[in-house]
Amino acid sequence: MLVLKTIIEATNSSVLERLKPEFFNGIVRVLRSGITQQGIKAALHVLLEACPWGRNKILMVEAGTVFELIELELGFPVNRTTELILGILFHLCSCPDGRAQFISHRGSIAVVSTRILRVSATADDRAVLILSMICKFSGTYMVLQEMLKVGAVSKLCSLLQVDCAKYLKDKAKEILRLHLEEWKDSPCFGGSQGI
Prior knowledge:
The chain is mostly helical. The chain has helices at residues 2-10, 13-16, 21-33, 37-50, 54-62, 65-75, 79-92, 96-104, 108-115, 121-138, 141-150, 152-159, 166-178, 180-183.
């Protein structure tokens, strides 16, 4: 895996644009097999390098990458690995099938929201942007209720009260405003700071 990571980082974009489905199926098998932490990080780096191309995102989603990333994060969260996983999920949630796979996993919203304010500023950024895309494009009643149930709404409210980047606070406000009607009875809206 480390050799593959080095090759992918050194290769040009025309090679990355033409990766085959078997490539991503193989990476998903590596993640599923639970190799060493170093091997998992290398596989995650490879996936992150391939994310910017839309075709690759579709192939990753079809290979079941979203499910495996959530399972991996649920299994053993490590700060740097969490940042990589959230970075990849951010890219995959930018396409409809990626969001559909994300919300079909029962632990997805919980695992992303629990990482807010616990890992790093980078993880906060990616987690909030993932939740933003989910709310904006896939914000069904069930999804919004799940966000309330697992504490994602409380985490977004917490972002308004802590010292963090202004754009994160703005994004949290945007999400909360978008679904204020559904969440207005939540305890965290008791005295919310200018939502």
